[in-house]
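[scheduler] slot 2 assigned
[scheduler] job type: sequence-to-structure, two independent chains
[scheduler] chain ordering preserved from manifest
[runner] begin chain α
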Amino acid sequence: MDVGFVNDPMAGKDSRCRWDQILVPGELKSNRSADRASEAWLDLGRYAREVLAAQDTRRFVLGFTICEPLMRVWVFDRLGSIASDQFDINKDGLRFVSTVLGFLWMSEAQLGFDPTIMTAKDERFIEIERNDSTERIIIDEVMQRARCIAGRATRCWRAHRVEDTRTPLVIKDSWQYAEREEEGEMLREATDEGVVNVARYYHHEIVRVHGRDDDIRSNIRKGLDVTTAANYRPRRSAVPPSTIATGARRSGRSGSIADPVRHLRHKADIDAIPNRIHRRVILRDYGNPIYKASSRTALLAALEGCKDTSKNGVVSPEQMHRQGILGKDARP
């Protein structure tokens, strides 16, 4: 990484910082032609992925590229990345200084850290509303995290209630498409039905940040309409082809028949933009990963047990599907 803002007051020109210390990564190029996807953009994307992987409480990452005098500001979230228009830092010095000061003055939440994961007395914790009371869940350690920018970005923490250190809990944090059925509801149903050998449900919620349900389009991107970008390419349109053809002409007199059709097409493009919602599930049980099996025999015996439920009561995903608890897609 060429340049950036780091969470290390002792960092100097030649300091080597870890990815978990990076607040805002940057990329410098000596020529303006590098301001394209195959060069500066790709390099900055790699840095953002490393930051998101190393910092388990990061919701998004801000960054910037400077290619000779041309600067862009970026945000990387679980839908991908978006960037500002380029500007010349020599000709627009005020904008450059304002951008740098903005990075310096931002709070942790504005830089992309999850404010629902708090720290007190060297302990990280979350607070949930359950059974009409507030519970504090202490985070013990990271169990698993996905190394990606766009996607579900599932992260799991081993945890426990502040008043009960002996009962283990697992917090599963992920960004799911809005149309996906909530995993927490399925697990709660499985627990209520007494399904054995499935992790017992404890709690689930949509994470709320600044008093709003945490999602990409509204809470992180603040309703930014990416369809107005110069290089925007819609994935598909929900408007019938004949309607699109009628309103395809970009120019037209005010009040012409093409105007409402263009409006419909624009609305359809916005509706077609995906959205991911920040969801959290808490379970009462967890097992060891299969790669920690004590022997190959133990691993094979466990897999065999999943097939023959009559021997040990293990319920397979197929059985849960037949019971109507799981849908066809039972991916983690």
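[runner] end chain α
[runner] begin chain β
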Amino acid sequence: MPPKKNQHAKPTQKAVTLFCQLMYTGKRHYLIDLARELDCSKQTIIRMMEDIDRSYSVRVEKGKEGKRTWYQIQTPRNRPKVALSEDEISHLLLCKEMVRHLLPQGLSKEVDETIHKTVALLPALDNRAQAFESLAGAILKGSIDYTPQEAIITTILNAIAGKDVCEIKYKALGQKEEKLHYFAPLKIKSYREALYVTGWKVDIRAKEAEPIYEMHLPIHRFTAAEPVRKKHSIQQQEKPHYFGFPECESFRVKVRLTPEAGRYVKERRWSSDQVVKDLDDGRYELEFTAQSETELLSWVLSFGANIEVLMPSHLRGKVLNELERTTNIYSGQEI
């Protein structure tokens, strides 16, 4: 039999976590997502749902959206009584401090005010100063000020929640003219020091918007975003974690690293299906899946002589060409 997932977590802990997710969010939770988040099987989630339905005096609704099963707790008649500890408020503050640089000024202020309101949930108000002590921050490289895009971000967030199609104007890097798209936004994602919105370009001529192709767009290049009177039913599909921001079809990569670089690489996750092999001479081999040749080339070059690309073969050629161009620049030769 295969080993159980997350053997250190007690079943009762998972059941309480599951109940809290259902009770306090009030939204639909999909079976496949819950199994992944709680690190257990779908059958375990189903059993816990049955226990919650019998034991917590709440009504658990169940349904299907396409092939995906969802669960949701009906809103209780009486508001549940809850309290937050100083540590819990401090953890909220920690999350905010780590992403503050990505938020427009107005949205950042709104988050601050919301967290400050949580002081009302403290059992002892004398401890509020301790709860709001800043314990974290972010070290930035090439950050972007999103304050000019605040209205656009708000429009996109509302469109995601309402499954609305937006008419967007977008100017790609290096292009003089902006392009207009009918776009169904599904999720805003952070990547390094930037915000992106993932979604689909859609055809709005039908009664319900129909997807054409997927798009991943940096928000700071939007010049306008307005909702149109058109809904969509496109679902966000969870995908494996691969190296780089989506740019092309995924492909396998194998590299060999020196002991120094290998130890650094081994500490990190580069794709969900990566394989790290310790070699007899102290070096390491890393095999993983990438979805951006541009980022992969930049990543390989950042290691200098501490890395060798073993596959794919065409990437070896690109590395060599880039090194030759760099050598020509520093030797004073024309490119």
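[runner] end chain β
[qc] chain β: Confidence is low (pLDDT under 50) at residues 1-8.
[scheduler] slot 2 released
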